[in-house]
Amino acid sequence: MCGIVAYIGKQEAFPIILKGLKRLEYRGYDSSGIAVQKDGELNIFKKQGKVAELEAYVADKDTSGTIGIGHTRWATHGEPNDVNAHPHGSGNEKFALVHNGIIENYAILKEELITRGHTFKSDTDTEVLMHLIEEIKSQQDCSLFRAVRLALNEVHGAYAIVVISKDNPDELIAARKSSPLVIGIGKNEYFCASDATPIVEFTKNVVYLEDGEIASLSLKDGLKLKTIENQEKTPYIQELEMKLEALEKGGYEHFMLKEIYEQPRSIQDCMRGRLSLSENMVSLGGILNYKDKLVNAKRIIVVACGTSWHAGIVGEYLIEELARIPVEVEYASEFRYRNPVIDENDVVIAISQSGETADTLAAIELAKSRGATIVGICNVVGSSISRATHCGSYTHAGPEIGVASTKAFTAQVTVLSLMALMLGREKGTISDERFSRLLIDLDNIPHKVESVLKTDAQIQHIAEIYKDSPNALYLGRGINFPVALEGALKLKEISYIHAEGYPAAEMKHGPIALIDEEMPTFVIATQDASYEKVVSNIQEVKARKGKVIAIVTKGDKDVKGIADHVIEIPKTDDMFVPLIATIPLQLLSYHIAVMRGCNVDQPRNLSKHVTVE
After folding, report:
1. Distance of alpha carbon 180 from alpha carbon 3, whole angstroms
2. Is 391 considered catalytic here?
3. 482: which residues sit within 8 A by CB, 6+ positions away?
4. CA–CA gap between residue 24 and residue 7 (Å, rounded)
5. 152 and 219, same structural domain?
6. Angle, nearest 10°, between helix axes 125-140 and 144-152?
7. Which of 290, 513, 563, 587 could form a disulfide with 548 if both were Cys (CB 3.0 to 4.6 A apart)?
8. Residue after which a domain boundary falls, among 245, 280, 309
9. Residue 239 pLDDT > 90, yes or no?
10. Which of 395, 419, 443 is the endpoint of a domain?
């Protein structure tokens, strides 16, 4: 959550930082601000609301300077307003700081600082950290780098910070723990950001800070790196693979729509080099060294949040069916707090689009401490989860800017499908004939997704009919149950309509009480082993005057005869239906949200990267 952008060099800092903050808007925020240093003066500009409001606020102000820090804030401590917005200045007005994360012991530190004469303007934990750095620098008469390092030894919690000084136009100080921060290295200039999106147009050379590292970005002395325990480190410079055009809308009205339409390519990219029909083979290079651990696992535990959790449930069906390994799917946010029974015979699969999800990272650390093997599935190269796991697979979906995940979900399910096929083949739990047939079906998924996208006009018509519904129910059975969960989540995330997903058979155990002529029920009713039972569930809804929108296999006649609307999808093996059936549900949610006038890419209260617990 939140976003950080900082710059030091020879160019004007404010425009670079402002543009970077706009690139980080997808992360979710409620206020923004920028501090710039020029001629011994430190000027801080901040406003509640969107970056555009900050831009309007500074239109008649002097924002010049070649060193600066910027921030988009998602409120944790203190309500969203101008005062609580970042950057936060020190009491002596010599320093300013931007911060992502939460300082857990800020209240105790604040009390101590008040006894030492400090006064506070905001309700934030961030301002407390700024004053702590100021206090240490004053008492020890030390460098800003040392003051920041010593202060970070006294705080508990998560942070990514960048600090600027009124008296030093040649240095930025940056540090991180449990919150991402990347440094971009240009020609006689440096950049800092929460992720690479604000940096990619300026440089391809980056350093991803590790937990407990603090960096000095100096025009005189270059990039220096230490741990907060004062151990010197050698920066590891990597090359960005991200392309600038991937961060633009490319003619689409919203990033979400663009990303829905990118799924034929993103699914194909996910399979590229991993699935070979000619060799009748699946290979996931990122986990080859730990393949035996997976094959011989006593059980597999999936930890994830939100959409990634739904992908994990699809993975549970896939792996248990094809590889016959018991799978448990856990909310990462609950996993660490219930003292789970886990040991060295277990494999934990951690799934996260961003690779920075705080709850999932905490679950990883707990599982590692118990001896489990950790496999990561994420989208962002160099992310915290990719570095914290023993092995894993990138989804190669490309940047996902829309807050509501679309192509991330199908890419994660694609990786889990490949993993299940590989394990089933290694364990001998699926026949050669079925393996080959499934390989062909999976290879054809991108083309089938393309065909579903061509039904968009029909889906828009259905969206127009149900856009004002106050509630919605989503039903699915077996491997399509998590598709119902994901469909409901998409609708509530971006249209603010209350929606719930259920196993279709569970409808009789409570939700059926909600059914009336005003309640649309979206049903995944493809022709699989439970088809007849799903048809019965639809008839139960219709008997209570409910409206039914059914996703059916192309050519279906039975459901078409009783449902109010049907959306046809191509026939495929039951195991891979979620990759296709989720597409019309994404489009329905998108069009309903647009018709309701909602901010599709940046829904209220939500963040793309949940980097706090």
Report:
1. 10
2. no
3. 310, 311, 313, 314, 317, 476, 578
4. 15
5. yes
6. 120
7. 563
8. 245
9. no
10. 443
C-alpha Rg value of the chain to the nearest Å: 26
Q: What are phi and psi of 162, to 5 degrees?
A: -135, 135
| Half-sphere exposure in the Cβ direction for 155 (13 Å, CA) | 34
User: What rounded mean pLDDT belongs to the chain?
Assistant: 91
**Phi, psi dihedral angles at 393 (to 5 degrees):** -135, 130
If one counts every other C-beta atom within 10 angstroms of the C-beta of residue 281, the result is 14
Are residues 494 and 386 part of one domain?
no
Predicted confidence at residue 243, as pLDDT, reads 59
Contacts of 455 (CB under 8 A, 6+ apart): 567, 568, 584
pLDDT of 440 higher than 90: yes
- Taking the chain, what is the end-to-end CA distance rounded to the nearest angstrom? 10
Identify the sign of the CA torsion 529, 530, 531, 532. positive
Structural tokens at position 455: 């039904």
Range of the domain at 273: 249-443
Catalytically annotated residue among 2, 270, 378, 391: 2
* 576-585 residues labelled b (16+ CB within 10 A) or e (exposed): bbbbbbbbbb
Average pLDDT, integer, range 426-435: 96
The continuous run of DSSP H or E covering 299 comes out as strand 299-304
User: What is the rounded distance in angstroms from the CA atom of residue 606 to the CA atom of residue 602?
Assistant: 7
Burial class (CB in 10 A: 0-12, 13-18, 19+), 368: middle
pLDDT at 540: 86
Residue 366: what pLDDT? 92
Q: How far apart are CA 26 and CA 46, in angstroms?
A: 19
Q: Which residues pair with 168 in a beta bridge?
A: 165
Q: What helix, strand, coil percent values describe the chain, rounded to 5?
A: 40, 25, 35
Cα torsion through 591, 595, 596, 600, rounded to 10? 50
Residues 486 and 421 in one domain: no
Instruction: Measure CA 100 to chain center.
Output: 15
pTM: 0.76
* CA 322/CA 329 separation, integer angstroms: 17
Please, which residues bridge with residue 520 across strands?
547
Residue 419 parent element (H or E): helix 407-427
Instruction: Name the catalytic one among 94, 407, 490, 608.
Output: 608
Give, for 466, the enclosing helix (H) or strand (E): helix 456-466
How far is the C-alpha of 43 from the C-alpha of 34, rounded, in Å?
8
- Does the annotation mark 545 as catalytic? no
Q: Are residues 257 and 227 in the same domain?
A: no
Instruction: State the helix-helix crossing angle for 577-595 and 407-427, rounded to 10 degrees.
Output: 170
Rounded CA gap, 139 and 180, in Å? Answer: 30
Between CA 424 and CA 322 the distance in angstroms is 5
DSSP helix/strand/coil, 393: strand
Same-domain pairing of 308 and 360: yes
Q: In the chain, how many domains are there?
A: 3
pLDDT at 492: 95
Alpha-carbon distance of 580 to 570, in angstroms, equals 8
pLDDT digits (tens, 9 = 90+) for 290-329: 999 999 999 999 999 999 999 999 999 999 999 999 999 9
Q: Region 410-427: what's the mean pLDDT?
A: 97
Answer for the pair 494, 406: CB distance below 8 angstroms, yes or no: no
Q: What is the dihedral of CA 319, 325, 317, 512, to 10 degrees?
A: -170
Specify whether 459 is located in the same domain as 368. Answer: no
Residue type, 388: A
What CATH number corresponds to the domain at position 589? 3.40.50.10490
